[in-house]
What we know:
The protein is mainly beta. The protein is built from 1 helix and 19 strands. Strand 18 and strand 19 form a beta hairpin. About 45% of the residues are buried.
Amino acid sequence: MPIIKPVNGKHPQIPDDCYVAENATIVGEVTMGxxxxxxxxxxxxxxxxxxxxxxxxxxxxxxxxxxTYQKSPTTIGHNVSIGHNAIVHxxxxxxxxLIGMGSxxxxxxxxxxxxxxxxxxxxxxxxxxxxxxxxxxVPAKKVKxxxxxxxxxxxxxxxxxxxxxxxxxxx
Length: 171
């Protein structure tokens, strides 16, 4: 059974069509949209501020989503993939975004729609990732504009695949 528990009277809100792996942890003020999936060893801690996720968000194995106490909540839009071992902390992620494996998105960042954060990138505090961009490196910088092929071939493909993968575990 996953760890799903209230903190200070605030309970996670998880729709019935979401998949939560047996060893995932979701605590506190966490609100998830439809068709989300939270994978093995992922942690979503809404204990110090709220975390709100849109529809079709996948939080892959070992990823951590957290916030900053009384200062920076975490808001994640629709159709977002958060890669294995990524950290998303006290920031805003808009719709149709891919957060690459092992990357870090820090407090008060805004990742606008149709963007990719490359694997291993570190998006430092207060960075605004403009819509349609790919950011990479440490610290992360814009490396190029995203193509329509990458939006459909990567961002949408991965989000759709994780809805499919989660169906394998629901039965």
